[in-house]
Each structure stands twice: as C-alpha cells, then as structure tokens.
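User: I've been trying to design a sequence by hand for this structure and keep getting stuck. Would you show me what you'd pick, starting by listing the structure so we're on the same page?

Assistant: Good idea, let's start from the same input. This is the structure you sent:
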C-alpha cells in the first residue's frame, strides 16, 4: 500500500470525490482521502493523501491556498458561478481603475456569507441540497482572510485575478461580493487552484499521468513521504530498547531517545531506531516527557 501525499491536477468536470474514487482504482487501495473540496468547474492542485497519510487530510485542509480566478461582471447566478441559473444581469459602467480599487479593497479580513450551493450544513442538511429543493436559508457570515490579492488582467466585463486566502474562503462568493461592491453584480467564470501550502501547479499530475507512472514503475518518485510534511521540525531517533513505546503510540522520556538528554522546545519528528517515521510529538514539561500529537505508525512493524 502506498503511503504519502501526491499532488493531483484535478481536471474540470471531476469532483474531489471523483478524484479519490479514480485514485483508488489506479492504486488498488481504499485508504485514500483528499484535502479540500474543489468545485467540478474548478481545476488545479488537489493534494491527495495515501495510506497512513490520510491522517494529514485535516491538516492540509487548514492550509492557505492560491487561486487564479476569472470574474465575469454584470451577471449574478444562483451558484455564484457561470454554471448556475442567471438571476440578474446589469450593465457594467465601472472603469478599470474602479474595478481594480474594488478588487483590492477585499485584502485582509472580511466577513463572508457562504453560498447556498455549498457543502456546509444547516440543521443537519447540506446547503446545496436545500438549494436544489428550491429553499434558501439564512447563513451566518464567517470570518475569512484574503492574504494577497492582485489584478492580473482587465478585459471588461472580465477580470482575471490571483488570490491567496485562508481556509473556508469561497472564491465564487468573493466574485459575487466584488460585483455587488461595483453595483453591477458578478460571478465566477473560471477557477484554477495554483498552490496548496508547498504543493504547486507545476508539479501536479493528471490522473492519466499517474496511471502512466504507475505502469512504468516510477510513481513512487512522485509521492511525498509523510515525514516531509514536518521537515521544519527537529528529529529524534529512539534507542532500540524503547522502540516498543513509540510503536504503540506511547509517550517517552527524553533519555529513551538518542542525543542530548534535555527536553526540546516545540514539536519534534520521532523515528524508531531503524529510522522509521513514527509521528510528531510535543514536550510535556510538567511530566518531563514527550507525548504524541499525531502518530502515523501503530503496532510493532
């Protein structure tokens, strides 16, 4: 079974769940998960976690993401993108300077009302299910952060922009909000995700490419090992006599690992005596030991 993270290029028309289903077929393994939903019309970077790395899915979902989006001004739809039913159309009277000013005004923190066509739940029901049934419910605004935003090209009524944002930001809704600010409405025409944390567009692989790499036996070269996600943290290697502690996911004293006997500061990567990655540990100064925060190996290998 493959373990690690692979940078998949999600193509248009596929849901994130479709990608996972196809990856299960390609790799002939069930333990696979994606790291954040991309709409079917969107394309680009979708890190997919394999085997033990599925424990990383929630961590990668929280990472910042970068998108290239095309905003179509003058149109509002029920889905806030061009795949939806047109609700209203307005003339675009703003000039390029006004458009740029409106786009850049969303830099920083703002409260965003999630779209009805989303997987968020209200009273146990997904919003898109309610929307398909013709129902609209009140949604509470949620704080999001636009970490970087700039206009790449303006060819009215289209505006191409690059956005880096926090978890939970809907680019469709950002397009809608910009259109509202300009008084002409707007919706998203296309969306390309170019980066998720350290995973970049230039390194992503289509499902067809992944199949080809599997067939020629080189796919492993494109799977990022789990411990590489924690490479910024220092590492500790266990003494052989105490491997059993970490194989069972237990805490351990600093002198049960090699090297300096002082308790380290911050998160630590822990390996057994055979250099097999165990997980990430955090110091417990009160008890003078290291306790597991996230373990990727259970049971004696």
């Amino acid at each position: 079974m493959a373990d690690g993270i692979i940078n998949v290029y999600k193509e248009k028309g596929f849901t994130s769940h479709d990608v996972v289903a196809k990856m299960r077929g390609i790799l002939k393994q069930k333990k696979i998960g994606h790291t954040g939903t991309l709409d079917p019309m969107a394309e680009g970077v979708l890190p997919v976690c394999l085997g033990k790395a599925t424990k990383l899915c929630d961590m990668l979902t929280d990472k910042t993401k970068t998108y290239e989006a095309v905003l179509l001004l003058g149109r509002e739809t029920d889905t806030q993108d061009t795949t939806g039913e047109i609700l209203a159309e307005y003339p675009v009277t703003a000039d390029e300077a006004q458009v740029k000013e409106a786009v850049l005004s969303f830099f920083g923190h703002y409260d965003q009302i999630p779209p009805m066509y989303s997987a968020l739940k209200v009273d146990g029901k997904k919003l898109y299910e309610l929307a398909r049934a013709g129902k609209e419910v009140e949604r509470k605004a949620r704080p999001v952060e636009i970490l970087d935003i700039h206009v790449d090209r303006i060819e009215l009524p289209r505006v191409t922009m690059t956005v880096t944002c926090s978890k939970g930001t809907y680019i469709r809704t950002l397009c809608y909000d910009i259109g509202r600010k300009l008084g002409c409405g707007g919706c998203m025409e296309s969306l390309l995700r170019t980066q998720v944390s350290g995973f970049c567009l230039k390194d992503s692989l289509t499902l067809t490419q992944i199949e080809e790499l599997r067939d020629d036996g080189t796919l492993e070269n494109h799977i990022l090992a789990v411990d590489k996600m924690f490479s910024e943290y220092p590492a500790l290697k266990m003494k052989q006599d105490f491997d059993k502690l970490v194989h069972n996911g237990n805490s351990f004293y600093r002198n049960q690992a090699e090297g300096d006997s002082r308790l380290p500061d911050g998160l630590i990567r822990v390996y057994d005596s055979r250099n097999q990655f165990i997980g990430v540990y955090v110091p417990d100064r009160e008890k003078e030991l290291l306790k597991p925060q996230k373990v990727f190996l259970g049971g004696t290998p």
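That's my pick for every position. To get oriented when you compare it with your attempt: Residues 35 and 57 are 5 Å apart (CA to CA). Helices lie at 16-27, 57-61, 96-104, 127-132, 171-182, 207-215, 243-247.
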